[in-house]
Amino acid sequence: MVEFSSSTPTPEEMERDIEIGRVLFAGEFRFVFGAQQLGQLPDPVLPEIAFAGRSNVGKSSLINALTGRRALARASSEPGRTKQLNFFELADRLTLVDMPGYGFAKAAKAVKEDWQGMMFSYLRGRPTLRRVVLLLDSRVEVKATDQEIMKLLDRAAVTFQVVLTKCDVPKPAMLEAKMREVTAIVATHAAAFPDVLATSSETGEGIAELRAELARLANPV
């Protein structure tokens, strides 16, 4: 399931891919189902992109920014609120999956059990899963739990791509240092996609590039 691009796109190809991504993510986007057990998962039909990250890393905000909607994926001020796999279909070509957060103290035991049980089973056994977008907060250090999830994804043999969130907050020098740090970490993981993207749901930084990257995994028109 681990798959990587063979070459860096040219500026012309990137411009084309950004437009393809814009059109895809401007399409109909709808909530399909929230699964709390493996037996509740919808049939695997469309390619799937799963979004994972520590609680309050900004998953819901990023999904909303990608699709240009405000509240389809609900952002919460209460960390650890998402307790299930939430499936959203995009233009009948791609499914986005919002996964439970991990690493929140109050829910640490339950979330850890989720990730060791249902989440790992989903990751390892879902035939349509094309990539996990693993979100890291650009403002804070990479946590031990983030490293644990990367190792879990390695074991599940699922391609994951690290995306930094809230990149409008750190100063440029700090963000550059964070990119170097995370890129070095990513290089040590067999299942990691090599390109790390910096994004901001507030300013739109990196959103077009992430759309372009994900659109490459969608079903063709």
UniProtKB/TrEMBL annotation:
- Keyword field: Cell cycle, Cell division, GTP-binding, Magnesium, Metal-binding, Nucleotide-binding, Septation
**Which GO biological process annotations does it have?**
division septum assembly
Domain named EngB-type G: residues: 45-220
Q: Which domain of life does the UniProt lineage start with?
A: Bacteria
Pfam families tied to this protein: MMR_HSR1 (PF01926)
Instruction: Identify the GO cellular component terms for this protein.
Output: cytosol
Extract the CDD domains matched here.
YihA_EngB
InterPro entries linked to this entry: G_ENGB_dom, GTP-bd, GTP-bd_ribosome_bio_YsxC, P-loop_NTPase
Which Gene Ontology molecular-function terms are recorded? GTP binding; metal ion binding
- Needed co-factor(s): Mg(2+)
Concerning its family, UniProt says:
Belongs to the TRAFAC class TrmE-Era-EngA-EngB-Septin-like GTPase superfamily. EngB GTPase family.
Describe the function of this protein. Answer: Necessary for normal cell division and for the maintenance of normal septation.
Q: Write down the NCBIfam families for this protein, in alphabetical order.
A: GTPase_YsxC
What is the name of this protein?
A: Probable GTP-binding protein EngB
Q: Which species?
A: Komagataeibacter europaeus (Gluconacetobacter europaeus)
- Quote the gene name from the UniProt entry: engB
